[in-house]
Amino acid sequence: MGFSSPRLYRKKTGVYFVRVLLGKSVFPSELRSSLRTKDPSQARRLVAVLNAFIEGVSMPHRPSAFNDFRNTISTWTVGNVSVADDDDQDRLGRFLAELDRRPTWKATFLDILGRTGNVVEAISGCHQPAQIQVPTASAAAIQGPVVAPAPAPSPYGSGPAPKNPMRLSAALERFRDNALRNKTTVPRTTHDRHEFLLKVGQYVVGMDDRLDKDPWVHHIHTHHLARFMDASAERIGRQESKETHGSQEPIHLDEDGEQVKTLKAASLLKRLSDMSSFFTWAHKELQATTENPIDGLQERRRKLTQQAKDEKTEYLPFESQHITTIFEPERYLMEGRFSDYFWTPLLGLHLGTRLKELVTMEMRSIGCEEDSGIWYMDVKPEFAKNKNSVRRLPIVQPLIDLGFLEYIQQMRVLGAKNLFPHRDLTGKTAMRLPSKLCGDAFAKLLDVCGVVHPLLVFHSFRHTVITALQDGGTPLSLSMQIVGHQAQDHAVRTGLITAEEARSVTLSTYTHADRPRMNVKFPLVPLKEALERCVRPPIDYRRLKIAADIVRENTVRHGTEFVSGWPKLREASAEEVRRRLGTSGSDEHAS
Question: Do the domain assignments include residue 591?
Fold first, then answer.
């Protein structure tokens, strides 16, 4: 890790802060912290102490040491009032200065506050932040961790203080950095979990006015988390028409007669699991709390686990008539004018991929194997659902016949970094839900086609491919490589193999199936053969190839911006599409 020396900066407000660069290969790429002082001499002393401290700590532990140092100067103190950050301190200082210029206002304000206790003493007569006690750069200080400041007394009475008290925001940063460093989860999952835990903290602070804005971890108790889970269980999900459901589940209607759905048990269990991961780590490893608040929710976890098993949704595979209807060339093209809307269902149909794996696909993950000449797409760890989902998929001949390689080559010529470069995946919503636009578009296509069933969704393509592979007699180890762990799960559920047999396959075969070995660089050939032999959808490839050419021609680059598709209401474009697709040959399906 390239850990540079701390650099001193000054904000426009006059407050000094320190910045340490880690390098682009590390996340986060830099660390920074306010020094909570406007005194240049004091700021230089603090930086000198910080530099001496981190120099005495081994390289892997320096980010943690930096966070420990930051915790020693975590708050401003104005009189008896503590504020969490520089902006709050600046606003408080300007407010007090304004009171000094307006004696009448000040007298009135102090008179009002005087009725509530000792607040007058807290704000009167002191406008400057209290002096920070600068730790000395002694040998003992350099060798050991910086001692965090003593936490405020618990708002719930006396009790033993933890060995390493820490504010929630700092603990969450440590938790996230630890997961990224140890690669316990894929980066996107780590960031999503971090955002979720921040929301938990915001909810807890909002429900309990006894807690600080940035509470101490050990001030969060079981009843806070229980209240959050109760609120989550009552949360209303998306509305769906009651006519679309053929299940016997209880139907809850809103005042307009529309069905409303609360979060499923599996979603609630995921939230509980994320909280458990953090608080267990904070209790056992960080030692920021004397008790693990999640322990009191074990009975809730048990009930949610059973409920999730009972509620588990098994999506249905598409039937032949569904596939023929969905991929009718003219309607399919008019509803899928954009390259991602057009290609993702076709890729899902032929490869059984998840939608998220497709919309996040990068051009660097697509290549051609030298030995076999087979083109492939890699599902990278940062975009995979889990470790079992990291795999290499062959691009089968039907997709090549449709012109998928031509589209790929055009994107390379245009300098695209992503398979679908016209979509910006850097926005907040896109980072959290990258497949939302494509998912909504496919759901609309199903509605237009009249293929309406709660268990028929984009994910049904995975079940379609898994079932086709199973019906075609494909060995389980190959199926697992093609679609990931879900193939194994499906085989166990349907009784094809026992759980013990699945475990044996995973350990003895699957774990090395994607590794180079004697005379084989990568086993793409049997994967490609299995898919082409078993997955034979009844679609009009000839006319869909024309549709694919139209989509490719309308995916262009203007300067630095990529554009795909055309306005749906442009009648001239629609007429040209119909002319090129023609009406003859609509019944010619691939055998």
Answer: no
Compute the 3-state secondary structure of the chain and give helix, strand, coil in percent, each to the nearest 5. Answer: 55, 10, 40
176 occurs within a structural domain: no
C-alpha 212/C-alpha 151 separation (Å) is 11
Report the 10 Å Cβ neighbour count for 158.
7
Structure tokens at 123: 């704000």
Same domain (yes/no): 111, 145: yes
SS3 257: coil
Going from the C-alpha of 491 to that of each of 96, 233, 545, the distances in angstroms are 70, 32, 34
**Burial (0-12, 13-18, 19+ Cβ within 10 Å), 471:** exposed
Which residue type occupies 474? T
In a domain, 1, yes or no: no
Question: Is the pLDDT confidence value at 545 over 60?
Answer: yes
For 273, the domain range is: 187-311
Specify whether 117 is located in the same domain as 215. no
pLDDT tens per residue, range 265-313: 888 888 999 999 999 999 999 999 999 999 999 999 999 888 887 776 6
Contact criterion met (CB below 8 Å) for 379 and 483: no
Task: Please count the helices (runs of H) and the strands (runs of E) in the chain.
Answer: 26, 12
pLDDT at 366 over 50: yes
Q: Provide the pLDDT for residue 504.
A: 42
Residue 359 sits in the same domain as residue 289: no
* 299 and 368 fall within a common domain: no
